Structure formats: structure tokens, C-alpha cells
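User: Show me a protein chain along with its predicted structure.
Assistant: Here is one chain, sequence first, then C-alpha cells.
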Amino acid sequence: MTDENPPSSSSPSKSFIDRIGQMLTGDPQDREDLLEFLHAAHKKHLLDADALSMIEGVLQISEMRARDIMVPRIQMVVVPHDAELDTILPLVLESGHSRYPVIEGDRSKVVGILMVKDLLANVLKQKSLKVEEIMRPVSIVPESKRLNVLLKEFRTQRHHMAIVIDEYGMAAGLVTIEDILEQIVGEIEDEHDAEEETYVQQKNKFEFLIKALMPLDEFNAYFDADLDDEECDTLGGFIVHQLEHLPKKGEKLKYGDFRFEVVRADNRRIYLVKLKLKKKPEKEAVD
């Protein structure tokens, strides 16, 4: 007797499994071959777009280093080592972070990490203490540290933040476990982010921070603008279309009276944009 349903050698699923086996035994010659294989699986609906994006992110972090995603020293929100606990509460409430680098002197010398849960526990007890008395040891990594290695260290050592140092041993910036995970899964919004329901945050009369996902029609309505939305739907898409490439953090675009600067981006998308409006010249005073 023969089997009623003999396995078919032409089964797409079996073919895909066979190809995975070939891949694991060394058939792909390089990373490009592997990515080509994954994109072929996506085209055949064996991988959805989100899964493909995350796999690409995993592959990319093995080539990226701490310097590529760190928050630069100048942008770090820090607290002085000799500050009284109650004096830094306004800063903590405004910024909404759970951990803060503790500095001695200037930002180039980080001596510890202040955790908000330690701060609140002591403030509630009405203890008159200084930051240095409750700060925790700081994790230090070089700018050249690979992200996949750093992620493993974060997990095994149960750290969430590390200070990135330059060749002279001075703090160059900081990196968190969330920063690395966002390279894989995209931007992660925490409870503090969720409170910001609008796309636009006004810094002053002429400067704004804008989420790149802001629809162009809403941008045009908000700023009384007429950005062309024929080719794209969002501000981020508009910037990519104008530059004709996916920009990196710090890249700028001038468009009419608008001055855009990419504040946060990875190698797949833009997240946050700074907008500066061209100041209109004031009328000359008449004697």
C-alpha cells in the first residue's frame, strides 16, 4: 500500500525549509546573500514585513557601534554629584527619565548613575542627602563597542544605561538598552512619550520639535504651509523625498522658509525633526 498523502517535493513550505537548511549549512556566501534570501522569503509571503525588518535590525546591530546611536554628551540630562536631592526634583519631573548620569565638574566626567526610584525613596523619607550618597556605579563602554556585544552585556549584567567614553577617557555620550532595541523593533514609546499626544512641541517662537510621522496635511494646516504631498504622506517621507536618501541624525534640509534638521533617526526611518522658521526681518525704526 502507498501513503494516501505522500510528501510533495514541490511543496512551497518544504522548499523553504530546505532552503533554510542550506542557508544554515553555509550556502549563503556573505551577508548580501543572506539578505537576498530573506527578501525572497518576504516576497513569497513566508515572512511578513515586520519580521523582515526585525531580522534586518538584528543583523545591522552586529555592524554598528556605540558611537552610532549614543546620545551626545551635550544632549545628556545630568545631575551634579553634590546637589541636594530635593533641588533636582523639578529637573526629574520635567525630563521624565528613570536614570541620570551624575557628573563631577563638567559633563565629560561622569561618576555615577542616579536612579529615580532611589531618589524618591529618600525624598519621601525626608532625608537630607546629596546625590553622591545614593548614586550607583556607572557602566563605562568605549565608542567602538559593538551593539550586539553591548546588548548581551546589558542583559547579563542587568544594566540599562552605559556611558560612552572617547579615546581620552572622557564621556562622549550615553547609550541605553532601549536605544539598542529600537534598532531592531523601531521606536519604543514609554509612558512619558504617550502623554505627548500632539505631533508638535514648540521650543520657542521660531523653533519646534516635530514627530516625523506627522501627516503632511496636518503640518500644512499647523504652519500655514504648502508642502507638496503628492509623493508622500508624512513629514519624514517628505524630507526623505527631498533629500533623495534616508538621512542620518544631524542632516539638514532647507525648503522655503523652513529649516529642517533630523534629530533622531536610524538606518530605516526618521523619528524626530527640528524645525526652525526663518525669522522675518523687523521693520527699521523711523526717526
